[in-house]
Design brief:
Layout (H helix, E strand, L loop, with lengths): L10 H13 L6 H8 L3 E11 L2 E13 L5 E8 L4 H17 L5 E8 L7 H17 L8 E5 L5 H14 L26 H13 L3 H6 L10 E5 L3 H14 L2 E7 L2 E4 L6 H11 L9 E3 L12 E4 L18 E3 L8 H9 L3 E3 L1 H4 L2 H15 L8 H17 L6 H8 L4 H26 L6 H20 L4
Parallel strand pairs: 3-4, 3-5, 6-7, 6-10, 10-11, 11-12
Antiparallel strand pairs: 1-2, 2-4, 7-8, 8-9
Helix pairs in contact: 1-3, 1-16, 3-16, 4-5, 6-8, 6-12, 6-15, 12-15, 15-16
Bound molecules: glutamic acid.
Length: about 475
């Protein structure tokens, strides 16, 4: 199928064109395909907040792209550039992402037009609580309807305020904690949620490198060890992905691109040090152990094995796609490669691990958090000590048969699973299975030329099956 890839289109159109490519490989009813493709409903709200005696008006959105499964799920973004089209595109990506990784949610997304850096903590709390109230009273938040989470510009702090506002407006809802994910642990959050998207990116890459045929197809070889990687964006996702890749996989993060410039060190950057510097100095400029480039974006074209865009949409576009030298692009952000750029990269043999797959770790662990909240018990609480008892018995049985188990190994075998172990194991399993399905579709279908199209086709198929089983009448 040929689609207009010769000019840059909006983010939303870009997502829809990816949908069209995938849809063309499927045998589903056209009316249903059109229904799936478009956003089901979007709520726009303007509300006033009095800050330091002055009334300011804010504008925000919450879009529900699909409700074939409920609740609909997706983050809330705080940004001075957010708009309705962007929120709709992100909501659509949430639907495809959840379907692909078998998270039983519809897709949603929210946005508030604000520059969070311009407001102090108290003002942010007032604004967030008011925005949450506006969404709650229109039923755009609830554990069975619509569950927000962090996204760009928001984190645990904002989720705590939203959850607390929800609780005060729905005092009888015993499942109130399940109305928001990405909360602090002390408020019903789950271990491993903060790192989840970044860890998911790494687990996705690890699975990719377990398949020599796919690795060769990207003109690479071996494992992640020693691979030269450039990361754009050292926010929550980029930071965790880079840190895990460097510390657990032995990859070399040779460059980090941030809003105020880029750092380059061919021997590999110390991610923790860069991150601490960024937090303290509000930027990467001045970091001692690297070469600094004021025009950071130029490093997107730097020589490397893997490029990880972890900031926002449209980073790799028609302007720079022909100059990107990475062999593999790992989309940690939502929509970092535009539809037009994708065509150019494909032509040049650059392989893309698509956002709908690679950054799904956040929502996967949000799903675990939601389950924890609905079951009102921490994972592992019932079985951990029992497991340890069983493991102890097993060790005793081995030792009594005359075999000695080395001390270090025995300590490992003895351990029962903690919440973080179970979360990481569930996330790992999810990312492995999803990539196996994507690659199967990719290698077996004659008209599927990219992992993105394969992933989207799988997602559309699943959503369409749900709607078909459900029927389209109320
Ligand atoms: N904002 C994240 C995303 O884009 C997480 C969404 C969630 O956990 O619901 O996937």
């Amino acid at each position: 199928m040929t689609l207009p890839a010769d000019k840059e289109v909006s983010f939303k159109e870009s997502v829809n064109l990816c949908f069209d490519l995938a849809r063309a490989t499927l045998d589903i009813e056209e009316g249903l395909a059109q229904y799936i493709r478009n956003v089901n409903n979007v709520y726009q709200v303007r509300f006033p907040v009095k800050l330091n005696g002055i009334i300011e008006t804010f504008i925000g959105w919450r879009a529900v792209h699909s409700d074939h499964k409920l609740p609909a799920k997706g983050g809330i973004r705080y940004s001075p550039a957010v708009n309705q089209d962007e929120v709709e595109a992100l909501a659509a990506l949430m639907s495809y992402k959840c379907a692909l990784v078998d998270v039983p949610f519809g897709g949603s997304k929210g946005g508030l037009l604000i520059d969070p850096r311009k407001y102090d903590r108290d003002s942010m709390e007032k604004i967030t609580r008011r925005f949450a109230f506006e969404l709650i009273r229109k039923d755009y938040i609830g554990s069975g309807t619509n569950v927000p989470a962090p996204d760009m510009g928001t984190g645990q702090r904002e989720m705590a305020w939203i959850a607390s506002t929800y609780q005060s407006h729905r005092p009888g809802d015993i499942d109130h904690l399940g109305a928001v994910t990405g909360k602090p642990i002390s408020m019903g959050g789950i271990q491993g949620r903060v790192e989840a998207t970044g860890r998911g990116v790494v687990l996705g890459l690890r699975e990719f490198f377990r398949h020599p045929e796919d690795v060769k197809n990207a003109q690479l070889e071996g494992t992640l060890e020693g691979k030269k990687i450039i990361v754009q964006g050292l926010g929550n996702v980029g930071y965790h992905a880079a840190k895990i890749l460097a510390e657990e996989d032995g990859a070399k993060i040779i460059a980090i691109i941030e809003f105020d410039g880029a750092l380059l060190n061919p021997d590999g950057l110390d991610i923790e040090k860069v991150y601490q510097h960024k937090v303290a100095m509000q930027g990467v400029k001045g970091f001692p152990d690297a070469q600094y480039f004021e025009d950071g974006q130029a490093l997107l074209e730097g020589e490397c094995d893997i490029l990880i865009p972890a900031a926002m949409e449209g980073t790799i576009n028609q302007q720079n796609a022909a100059k990107v030298r990475a062999k593999l692009i790992a989309e940690a952000a939502n929509g970092p490669v535009t539809f037009a750029a994708q065509a150019i990269l494909h032509e040049r043999g650059v392989v893309i691990l698509p956002d709908v797959y690679l950054n799904a770790g956040g929502v996967v662990v949000s799903y675990f958090e939601w389950i924890k909240n609905l079951s009102h018990i921490r994972f592992g609480r019932m079985q951990r000590r029992w497991e340890e008892g069983q493991n102890e018995l097993l060790l005793q049985a081995i030792q009594s048969s005359g075999h000695r188990v080395p001390e270090a190994l025995s300590r490992k075998i003895h351990l029962g699973a903690r919440e973080i172990d179970l979360v990481r194991s569930g996330l790992d399993d999810t990312m492995r299975i999803a990539f196996q399905h994507i690659r199967e579709r990719y290698w077996s279908h004659p008209h599927i030329e990219s992992y993105r199209t394969a992933a989207m086709a799988l997602a559309i198929e699943k959503i369409s099956t749900s709607y078909q089983i459900m029927g389209v009448y109320p």
